[in-house]
TrEMBL record:
PANTHER family: ARCHAEAL TYPE IV PILIN N-TERMINAL DOMAIN-CONTAINING PROTEIN, VNG6441H. It comes from the Archaea. Keywords: Membrane, Transmembrane, Transmembrane helix. The keyword Transmembrane helix applies. This is Type IV pilin. The keyword Transferase does not apply. Residues 11-89 form the Archaeal Type IV pilin N-terminal domain. The chain crosses the membrane at residues 12-38.
Amino acid sequence: MDIKNLFDDDSAVSPVIGVILMVAITVILAAVIGTFVLGLGSNVQSAPTTQFSFDYSDPASGDGQIVTVTHDGGDTIDPAALSVQYTKASDDTSATKQWADASVSEVSSGNSIETDSAAKSGTTVRVVWAPEGGDTSQTLSTSQVP
């Protein structure tokens, strides 16, 4: 066996490198095509940056608190994508007040909405953003009912 010939023979290196490169290219192409076929490259919306304040008042009758949520600043939001979620004091069920019910074309600083019924004390009120056509939702702000 000639040791010098063993180090000088490069005939097996080229096919191995070729196979590795072809596999890497195939994996990258499959990942890119799969991303667009599955729709992961579209319908990605970032949540608006906003601030909300919560004011509480006693209801005319019963327990709990009427909640008034006010947009204090930040991005304007489509009212169809915005809601207030809370637990009703009267029957301990969850309720949702759509901001679109407030008859505004966009929710901007100074706009407010009031819950239809009293929220149960000790529960959390959430302002939720869920854009139309989107697959996700995000809680923009929360507050504890006193």
